[in-house]
Design brief:
Elements: H1 4-19, H2 26-66, H3 73-76, H4 86-92, H5 95-103, H6 112-123, H7 126-133, H8 139-154, H9 158-167, H10 174-184, H11 188-203, H12 216-230, H13 248-263, H14 265-272, H15 287-302, H16 308-322, H17 327-344
């Protein structure tokens, strides 16, 4: 489940944190990276567990409504289709998911306000209305309903997003990180002007912000939706849950990438210096840009199976999010020049 886009992002975050502590402890950095990847996988399992947990809670809600003194006919005879959803039952039967959930410290059931909010979100939606009125009763229809709920309702719900952010620093909103970095790298006088413009735009209804599509949390949500859509009734659900890593190569890639970029940071800066455009030096580089370039060089030199254009594209995308507005084109130009230089010098043979 943890693909290389996620790995690069977590390595970037971990390396940036440890380089700014002023004391490089490689073992501690590797432990922090491992923890961030584990928490990322926890989010995948936790969001899948939301379906059976919310189903159980909804069954309790329906029973409370049924027992009301002045219950309506609809409340006395509720439609049980959501409670009997076959995908929810399949997930509830997962021994792997239940064992993980039992030892995980955070439980959906402990926040009834959140669960009630999500139930209202579902009940008020056109998705739910269409689901109840649909004559087709099949595993595939039940499966499609929950996939659509995640895609159309849950992934964009601010209340759920805020709740996740509050319960793990590894699940926080990437958009807030972006705004913080942009402001920190600008002069205070210009920052005040930026804030004034943003405030004015918000007041006039002209301000828009979107979540980082390739951010860790967004990628995990996408994997949850894909897992729901790809589930089949014939196979045990435990066999269909995605593993933490696709294979051992990805796990090795994460550790090796972090280790090399931390151990050889000065060596890589010396390689980058001659390629920098006129008027620039490694001392003038923004810290995040310098780290992105060193990560790119690390992949060029240590991972022969990764084409150079893949490496360049990945770090350009990270530059768009984690650095300034002009960093993406800068990182693209420098890494492209580095790749050509390494090929000419015979340091790399890949394209």
């Amino acid at each position: 489940m943890i693909n290389r886009v996620l790995i690069r992002t977590r390595v970037l975050q971990t390396a940036y944190t440890h380089l700014h502590r002023g004391e490089l402890r490689l073992t501690a950095a590797e432990q922090d990276l491992q923890l961030s990847l584990e928490r990322t996988y926890d989010l995948y399992l936790y969001l899948l567990q939301l379906i059976p947990s919310l189903t159980d809670f909804y069954q309790e809600v329906l029973e409370i409504r049924r027992r009301k003194h002045l219950a309506t006919h609809q409340e006395r005879t509720p439609n049980l289709r959501l409670v009997e959803n076959q995908l929810a039952r399949q997930l509830a039967s997962s021994e792997k998911l239940q064992q993980w959930y039992d030892q995980f410290g955070l439980r959906w059931e402990e926040d009834e306000a959140l669960l009630r909010h999500l139930i209202r979100l579902i009940e008020d939606s056109e998705l739910y209305e269409a689901y109840l009125s649909d004559r087709e009763t099949s595993y595939e229809r039940d499966q499609a309903f929950w996939a659509d709920v995640f895609h159309q309702l849950f992934t964009q719900d601010e209340h759920l997003n805020e709740w996740l952010e509050q319960h793990s620093l590894y699940w926080e909103d990437d958009l807030q990180v972006l705004e913080k970095i942009e402001c920190e790298e600008r002069p205070s006088s210009e920052e005040e002007q930026i804030l004034q413009v943003i405030t004015s735009a918000k007041e006039q209804g002209g301000y828009q912000a979107s979540r980082f599509e390739n951010g860790p949390v967004e990628i995990v949500k996408d994997f949850v939706e894909k897992s729901i859509r790809k589930a089949t009734q014939e196979l045990p659900i435990d066999d269909q849950l995605l593993p933490m890593f696709r294979d051992s190569e990805d796990e090795t890639f994460a550790r090796h990438l972090l280790r090399q970029v931390l151990l050889k940071q000065e060596e890589y800066l010396q390689l980058i210096e001659p390629v920098l455009t006129e008027g620039w030096s490694s001392e003038r580089l923004a810290d995040i840009d310098a780290l992105l370039l060193r990560l790119g060089v690390t992949e060029f030199l240590h991972f022969p199976g990764i084409p150079t254009h893949i490496t360049i594209n990945e770090y350009v995308e990270l530059a768009k999010h984690y650095s300034t507005a002009h960093s993406a084109s800068f990182v693209n130009g420098i890494l492209d020049a580095m790749a050509r230089k390494f090929r000419e010098e015979g340091k790399i043979l890949k394209q």
